[in-house]
Amino acid sequence: MCGVLVVSSLLTVISLSQNSSWFDLGDHGLLSNWRYPNAPTQHAIARLEAGNVRTAYADYWVAYDLDFLSNGRLAVTTVAGADTNRSQAINRTVEQSHRAAWIFVPRDQIEAGYQQFAGTTAIVGPASMTEVTFIGKLHALGISYRIIDAGLIQAVVPSRSLTPKELGLS
Length: 170
Fold this sequence. Notes:
Strand content: 5-15%
Strand order of the largest sheet: 2-1-3-5-4
Mean pLDDT: 86
Radius of gyration: 22 Å
Number of helices: 6
């Protein structure tokens, strides 16, 4: 039985190697529909970096992916008390930053956000706060801002350092 299995496997490998287009990465091969699953997040990271964002607040899963996939080029943390604390060192870096961004998954990107980050509505923003609510708080405090559209996510960058406590979040 073992011999039949070995011969059968060998014949299959020979057959497939002669018809290598089956494994081809082109338009019709077995792997033609496979894509790099982190491409949307990598694209967002590139756009954040192009917008000079290095530090930020975000939801736990968004922060985790941005930190990990940027290889540490971005320092992204959560709001203390509202989400799991991942790293005291990252927290300090973000807290000491003069231009920490606040990262949100826009409503029209929520399905893609579920696929990239986590299947929870908490990914909308830091401490589950939406971008609209955050911008309303900036207006109430008289703080100007700029928005970086990074595709999958948006970064709101206040004109001055802003702590979660100032927003009533901690």
